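Sequence of Cobyric acid synthase (Planotetraspora silvatica).
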Amino acid sequence: MLKGTLKGTLLVAGTTSDAGKSVVTAGICRWLARQGVRVAPFKAQNMSLNSYVTADGAEIGRAQVAQAQAAGLEPTADMNPILLKPGGERRSQVVVLGRPLADVDAMEYLAYKDRLRAVALESYRRLRAEFDVVVCEGAGSPAEINLRRGDIANMGLARAAGIPVVVVGDIDRGGVFASLYGTLALLEAEDQALISGFLINKFRGARELLEPGLDTLRELTGRPVHGVLPWLDGLWMDLEDSLALDNRQAAEPAAGPYTGRSLRVAVVRYPRISNFTDIDALAAEPGVTVRFVSSPAEAAEVREADLVVLPGSRATVSDLDWLRRTGLASAVAERRGPVLGICGGYQMLSRSIMDDVESGAGLVEGLGLLPATVEFGTEKVLSRPVGEAYGHRVAAYEIHHGVVSFDGEAEPFLDGCRVGAVWGTTWHGALENDAFRRAFLADVASAVGKDDFTPDPGVSFSALRERQLDALGDMIERYADTDALLALIENGAPAGLPTLPPGGAS
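Predicted 3D structure, token representation.
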């Protein structure tokens, strides 16, 4: 046990987005927590449309929530002090310490950098004072040299706080040795001095085949590979952004024919889909097949699925327009079977949307499947509601500007409404409540004439998530050089690490 004996910090960077920084950080947190270490995760700046509401009403990235759970902690805003939520090609909402600050484009954001750097560093210092170890996650790649001057999440943080850095490379993409070497070589000398080693992630095969490459990388860089981490099948844990959906869906089996004991769910993947982690609990149910659809060619899937889900959206009006342009809106409207709208998806199912806040589009016609109207407010609703449906307690969270009202034609449903087999709710995370989810799926099955479909009463979504986190902790313990990681956490970057020519960018 390391309880009370280990003090320090580490930053997990990556050669690319989706290299595995989030899961490696979670794995290190779980491994340390099991050793009795008081460890906390930290990501200074996160760009993601998957977010969560903390117990005190702050909005942070879902990945940091999973990492906090790995550490056995309730998440706080300090774990992700800066959250960027893209709302268009060039604009993002800036959320600072859990509260929205401004909507800016990429150039306007530069004006906030000094202020945000101070906020991030103060959050980091608070965590360092409270916990024995802080495991930091970088953002994107530290070798984005065009952004280095304003960086607050990668080498900018590492330099400011003297944090040793390990760089994760995704071997499944190919070119991992070039990516690791090139990432280091592009950095200026002072940044290179903190890059203390590498981790290779998502490896499938015999490690012996890698050994010559590992040896050469060590010779060329003067830095060791601290582990070759395996590909983990079935890993879905709180994915950071919608790019990761491509990898997950590619691994899923093709949706097969309907059977009496299976339910087929089609989830519409709009350009600005948010909080798609709401679907994870459905996908975890035996006998439920979940597919994301995003093209006109998949309209038949929308018409024929047992259940269609319209998930959250960061840009409701824009994504509704996209839904119409692809023909998927017609496929939804023509259905006679169950439809579930969550947050932005619920808003799309309404009769009308008045939006002078998010899109500035004014009055927009909705899909009209629910007798509801939406009006966007300037204040964002952030809450952790608790209610009841199908006789079961439901705990959830809310993140939205659009306020929905419905008339007496509809039956109340989780602060939303229901008409026949169409449900709408503003609540994220409701499907993670096991008893409610089973009752909802049984209702869907009944609506499509599949009365012999029975949800598995033994499925616990929270237990499944814990098993995933344990698997990540096991991965670090088994495949990483944990002694080397402990030395970095406690002692910092080794002195005298060589600088690669040309010494990076200024």
